[in-house]
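Researcher: Structure for this, please.
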Amino acid sequence: MLDSPQTTTILVGHVNINSPDAVMVRVTEIVIHPENNYIYNNDIALLRLEEPVTLNDKQRPICLSDAPKERSPSLPCYVSGWGVVNVTGIATIELSTILHHTKLKIWEQSKCERSYPGQIKPTMLCAGYYSGEMDACKGDSGGPLMCQTQPDQWELVGIVSWGEGCGQIGKPGVYTRVDYYLQWIQSVTSYANKEGVTCDFEHPDLCGYTSKSQSEFAWSRRSGGVHYPIMPDMDNTLKNASGHYVYTYFPYGASQKSAVLSSPPLPAKEDTSCLYASTIIYQCELCKLEVKVVDSLGNLSGALLKVSSKFSTSWLRFNVDIPMSTQHIQFISTSGQWSGGGIGLDDVTLEPGVCENTMKVNCNFDNRTKSTPQFNDEICSYTQESFTDDFDWLMVQDKENGDGFLRAQNAFGYQGYRARILSPRLKSYISMCVSFEFRASSRSAGFLQVCRLLSVNGNDSLDCSFWSSRLNAFTDPTSWTSVHVTLPSSDFEFSIVFEMVQGQGQGYIDIDDIFKLDGDCL
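Model: Predicted structure, token format:
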């Protein structure tokens, strides 16, 4: 059975498959019966739609039985489909563009078993005529066998599955018996009463998340294992092939198009929350995942996070602070230049309070408690690097507005002397954007660089290749300038380091308003 929701749509509202009035609805998940064995047993699946179908005179739901029951051969039943209508077209699969139907009789189970010795199971039923002629055919698979059980009620009794030829004498069509699967259908379609932002996507109801897309692809619920097209072979929750995640597969030619996964409504809250989630960027180049929020007035924010990469081979954890006025959270997947891969999402959680890394990095240096200009070790958890540098950063208060900031100044040092401050140890399995304000008393005062101090097996390694004011031409270095630096992901703990290197002349360098976002700088 084909498990490819990204290439599957349904048509409603018209019998002509090419009619401009027909409504196409995207499929976001194909739930195949867990014990499916091709056509030989449990040949049934459910399609989850991207949005509800509007009910009207042209499109109405069909009923299901309330319990398994034997059907009388006298029951009026019809099968319909767009399959082959003439046996001469079987070889070339000449499908119809018009929906056809034909009346059939349900066979007694014993008679059905005699027609196909050793092949008929309790999950199957036969319908047709011994003389043949009228039957479902190639291209009708998955179509409905509908029976009138009440004067104004039709039930879905069977699903076109298999048979020998089309309309052959003594060889009726074989159908999946729908009422055998009522409990399974109920388990898949019922809600788990777990609607909310926090979700591991193991239940088919997706915790109330909805997919919206105007392009060729959409978010769909997938599981691990071997897939075509290629997709992650395991989820992040269970870390095996049976676990589920949501995924956007990018078909060829879908460059720079997006699909949106929207959370259910957030409960009203009075403070910032921290959103955690795991993502995998799988075999796609320059594709990206963004997180945006919709506030209580319906306004869509800019991106709070952007993760982009050529590809990753494992699930990566990220976090982002969610404002208190948020009504919905949106995960936006955008295709890149190379097709054939996609982006996965799993294990979304929302916890009260600011994210841990945010508390460790963000600081405006205004909480100065001492009157003398010195570095306060308690402010924002930043610390002086006291072993290998040459002088210190000082806490300074602006004389005009009272705002605090950090200043590195050494009136008696030599060119090349260094002053460093370090953030607490951090963990970030995706890139991180560090932003801050910077100014210098003059170009000759020296330069500032952003470094990362990695701790690998107890050994520290300092890398200062990410950003340097020496390599950036500032129009006026004496004015506050906003700087944004992307630090790549790391499998090891690290500290962010701000380092001033003294120049030829006397002077100082100031920094202020440090904050970080997970993901690339926007």
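Researcher: Any notable elements?
Model: The helical segments are 109-115, 182-189, 356-361. The first strand starts at residue 9 and ends at 12.
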